[in-house]
Design brief:
The chain is of the alpha+beta class. Helix content is about 20%, strand content about 30%. The chain has 7 helices and 27 strands. The strands form 8 sheets. The protein has a 6-stranded mixed sheet with strand order 7-4-6-5-9-8, with no helix packed on it. A hairpin with a 2-residue loop joins strand 23 (about 340-345) and strand 24 (about 350-355). Helix 1 crosses helix 6 (about 295-310), helix 3 runs parallel beside helix 6 and helix 4 packs across helix 5 (about 250-260).
Length: about 400
């Protein structure tokens, strides 16, 4: 069996970035730009007022008094210079007129009809945003390979961008297998269960930035499994859940071989998720995950998600890991590393973690209650206060920045 790290490396070596496409600016959110984005101009384009107040020449200030000679709203430009000892009322964002280098806020002056008196000391160039202090023309502002968050979208807009090139979203075909499965919305029947894997895995695809394509449920026959997999070959990646073990009705590996696919590995040294297979079929990565809901989702997190992120141009493809202090004794009596669902939080500048209780791979509720996976080494016992490795699962982790 491969280790988790060996399996991840093997998969990523087989995955290449997808093509790029041109999209409207908003559609670039949470996508990756393949090219450097270069500033076409300075921002701000000119020295401008950072506050509503009065603009003047600091060197010419005498007796803290200035004569008011006009008003300059935001959006307008004064072409007539301001003489020494005089000032113009200026609004936030308005460019400083020639002859001015300082702004005094309205609340720091006493004003009559024609003059103002400064009531507090003001340093030269106070309350002025200088030309190019945000970005300089010609500089690389967003390097190629960057994820476009809301702040990057805002900057691109300020740079005059209306459309841009990004990596295409991965289309991911998702197939559930098993005679026991029913579609959501069906009435429960004896011996049957509702298919949850297609929707949890589809949601994980969406969360990673891909587009899920649900292929439905394949009955436990070789022909049906082949037909469903064949239907998914117009997608970029195929994810299959169930039917990958060694039972009499587990046809997934046989179907991949029947269609000409090559299975790179099967079985990973981990719990849950040992029966994970990875194959290439007509140039498409195929992931065959366990049927148990937790094992399917954990396997997706560790192997499918990084592959999708690489395909969509991301440079950081793995979730962050931290060290956390256990709040309870736990043990792994098995011979495989155990990824235990946990709840991590921060106290006193440290991470603390506890388990979500029963760790059966069929209990989806154990993931609902948690926000991380705790790595427990094989045949190891831990006491409360031991430090363990934790994989953070929540995209918007409740603590914000990762602690050192």
């Amino acid at each position: 069996m491969l280790s988790i790290e060996q399996a991840q490396q093997t998969i990523l070596e087989c995955v290449a970035p997808l093509e790029t496409e041109n999209v409207a600016l908003f559609q670039g959110l949470n996508r990756v730009t393949p090219e450097d984005r270069i500033a076409p101009w300075d921002i701000p384009a000119a020295d401008n007022a950072a506050m509503d107040g009065f603009a003047f020449s600091h060197a010419a200030l005498s007796d803290n008094r200035l004569k008011i000679i006009g008003i300059l709203p935001a959006g307008e430009v004064r072409t007539v210079p301001v003489p020494p000892g005089e000032a113009v009322r200026i609004m936030t964002g308005a460019p400083l007129p020639t002859g001015c280098d300082t702004v005094v806020p309205i609340e720091d002056v006493e004003e009559d009809d024609e003059t103002i008196r400064l009531t507090v000391p003001v340093k030269a160039r106070s309350h002025v945003r200088t030309r190019g202090e945000d970005i300089r023309r010609g500089n690389v502002i967003i390097p190629g390979g960057s994820l476009l968050r809301p702040q990057e979208i805002g900057m691109l807009s300020a740079m005059g961008t209306r459309s841009l090139t990004v990596y295409r979203r991965a289309r991911v075909a998702i197939l559930a297998t098993g005679d026991e499965l029913l579609e959501p919305g069906s009435s429960p029947e004896p011996g049957k269960i509702i298919d949850s894997n297609s929707y949890s895995l589809g949601a994980q695809v969406l969360d990673a930035g891909g587009d899920p394509v649900l292929l439905g449920i394949a009955p436990d026959t070789l022909d049906a499994t082949c037909g469903k997999i064949r239907a998914g070959l117009d997608s970029d990646v195929i994810v299959i859940t169930g039917g990958v073990s060694v039972g009499d009705r587990d046809f997934v590996k046989a179907a991949i071989g029947e269609l000409g696919g090559i299975i790179t590995f099967w079985k990973i040294n981990m719990k849950p998720g040992k029966p994970v297979a990875f194959a290439m079929l007509q140039g498409k990565p195929v992931f065959a995950l366990p049927g148990n809901p937790v094992a399917a989702m954990v396997s997706f997190e560790l192997f499918v998600r990084p592959a999708l992120l690489k395909a969509m141009g991301h440079r950081r493809v793995f979730r962050p890991k931290v060290r956390a202090v256990l709040q309870e004794p736990v043990a792994n009596n098995g011979k495989r590393p155990h990824l235990v669902r946990g709840i991590v939080s921060a106290q006193d500048n440290r991470y603390h973690v506890s388990t979500t209780g029963n760790q059966s791979s069929g209990r989806l509720s154990s993931l609902i209650r948690g926000n991380c996976l705790i790595y427990l080494a094989p045949e190891a016992a831990y006491v409360a206060s031991d430090a363990v490795e934790v994989l953070l699962l929540d995209r918007g982790f409740e603590m914000g920045e990762i602690l050192p």
